[in-house]
Amino acid sequence: MSEEQIKNLEEQFEERIARDEKIEPKDWMPEKYRQTHIRQISQHAHSEIVGMLPEGNWITRAPSLRRKVALLAKVQDEAGHGLYLYSACETLGISRDELYEQLHSGKAKYSSIFNYPTVTWADMGAIGWLVDGAAIINQVPLCSTSFGPYARAMVRVCKEESFHQRQGYEIMLKLCNGTPEQKEMAQDALNRWWWPSLMMLGPTDDMSVHTEQSMKWKLKRKTNDELRQQFIDQTVPQADILGLTIPDPDLKWNEERQSYDFGEIDWDEFWQVVKGHGPMNKARMKARVGAWERGEWVRDAAMAHAEKQQERKNKQVV
Amino acid sequence: MKNKNLYNYILGIADNSLILGQRLGELCGHGPSLETDIACTNMSLDLLGQVRSYYQYAAKIAGDGRTEDDIAMLRKEREYFNVLLVEQPNTDFGYTMARQFLFDVYHFLMLTELEKSTDLNLSAIAKKSIKEVSYHKRFSSDWIKRLGDGTEESHSRIQTAINDLWTYTDELFHQTEADKAMVAEGVGVDVTKLKDAYYEEVNAVLEEATLSVPESKYFQKGGKQGIHTEHMGYLLADLQYMQRTYPNMEW
C-alpha cells in the first residue's frame, strides 16, 4: 500500500470515529490504534484479575454467610470481567497467553490500587465504595468508546460495577451504624484508601502522556483531573452520610467553582507504586505467576485430553 | 431442644456444604485458568447458598435466638459434624477435583433421596440444591476424566489424589444417632443404602478416566462425631475469625 493510500484510509478512519461509528475487529485500523487498544484493554483485564486478590483475601474470613456469599459473587464478577475483556482484546490479534505473559513479565501494567493490602473487613467496604466508585467514573465514558468489542464489554462491566459500589457502600453504612469499634474500622479504611483512590484516576493532566490521542479515539472523554474532581464531588457527600471524615485537612467547598478544593496528592507515592515498589506489588505478582505455573499441568492435561478425544473421533469417522 | 435429632440431622448435611464451600472459597483468584476459577467459585457459592437455607431452618428449630451465622461460625470444632473428606486441603487442583468428585457423587445421591423427605423444608432445599449439585458432579467428573486421560503427569497426580482421599469415602455412609432417628420418621435419608450406587458410579468414572480403583480397605472416620483431622482447626480459625474477634456485632 502506498503512503498516500494509507493516509487516505487513516483519514476515512478518523472520520468514522468522528461520526461516532463503531470500529469492529475486521475493519482496517491504524497500527497505533490497534496497539493502544491492546495496551488499554489488556491493562483493564489485568486489573480485574489482579484485583481479585485483595478482596479474595477476605473470602474465608467474611463476618457472616451473607457477606461471604456476596463477596464471592463480587470477586467472581471480576473474573468474568477479566474474561470478556481478554476476549475483546483477542479480537485485536493477540492471544490470552501472550497477554498473561506480558502481565507476568511486568511489561503490562494493572491498576496500582491493587498493590495496597486489605488489612481489615472494612477494606471490603472501602474498596467497593471508593475503588469501584473511581473505576465507574473512569469507565462509564468507555461504554461509548470507538472500538465496538470494548464498548460492548464496558456496558456490562459498568452495570456490575455499579452494583458492587452500592454493595461496598452498604458494608460501610452497616459499620458506621454499628459499634464504635466498627465505625473506627470504617474510618481507618477510608483513611488508607482515600488517597490511593484519587491516584487511581491517573496522573495530573500535565503529566499524562496518553490523553490527547485517547481523547480523539474516544478512549477518554474527560481528562484525569476532571474525572478526579467529579469523583471527589460525588464522594464527599457520601462520606458525610456515613459520618466519616475525609482524611484531607485542605478539603473545602468552593462556592465559586461549585466544587471541592482538595489537598496535594503525594505523587511520589504514586510513582513508587507504579514502578513496582508498593506494599503488595511483589506479592500480587507472585500470586498471579504462582497460580499460572501451578496450573500448567492442568492446562496441559486439558489440551492433551481434548486432542486424544479428537483423534478418537477422527478414527470413528474413518 | 425439642427437636434435637432433627437439628443435628440438618447440621450433619449442612456442615458438609459449609466446609467444602469454605475450602473452595480459598481458591478464588488462584485457579489454573479463569474458567476453572469461575467454576470453583460458582460451586462454593452454590454450597454456601444451600448452607444458609439449612442453617436458617436449624436456627428456627433451635428456637434459642441463635442465627444462621451463630450456627455457622460460633461452634467448637467438636460440634461440627461434616465428614473428614470435605475438610481436606486444596493440595493441588488434582486433590481439589478428587475431593469434589468423591463428594459430589454422594451429594447427588443423598439429595435425590432427601427430596422425598416428609419434612417439607428439607425436601424443598433438596429440590433446589439438586440442580446445582448435578452441575457440580458433571464438572468434577469431567475433570477426573480429563486429568486421568490427559498427560502422564496429570494421570499420576489425579491417581495419587484419589488414592489419598479414598480413605475418607466410607464415612459418607455411616449413620449417626440423629440419622437413625430421622430415617425412622421418614425425614432422613438412609445413607447406608446409597453405598453400592455410589461406588458403582465412582468406579465407572475412574475407569473411563483410565484410573485404577484404590484397593485399600482401611478407612478413616470421626467427622460425623465431631472428631476431625488436624486441618479443621485452621479452617475454622479463618471461618470464625471475625465473629470471635468482634462478638455480638452485626455486619
UniProtKB/TrEMBL annotation, chain A:
<dbReference type="Pfam" id="PF05138">
    <property type="entry name" value="PaaA_PaaC"/>
</dbReference>
<dbReference type="InterPro" id="IPR007814">
    <property type="entry name" value="PaaA_PaaC"/>
</dbReference>
<protein>
    <submittedName>
        <fullName>1,2-phenylacetyl-CoA epoxidase subunit PaaA</fullName>
    </submittedName>
</protein>
<dbReference type="InterPro" id="IPR011881">
    <property type="entry name" value="PaaA"/>
</dbReference>
<dbReference type="InterPro" id="IPR009078">
    <property type="entry name" value="Ferritin-like_SF"/>
</dbReference>
<dbReference type="InterPro" id="IPR052703">
    <property type="entry name" value="Aromatic_CoA_ox/epox"/>
</dbReference>
<dbReference type="InterPro" id="IPR012347">
    <property type="entry name" value="Ferritin-like"/>
</dbReference>
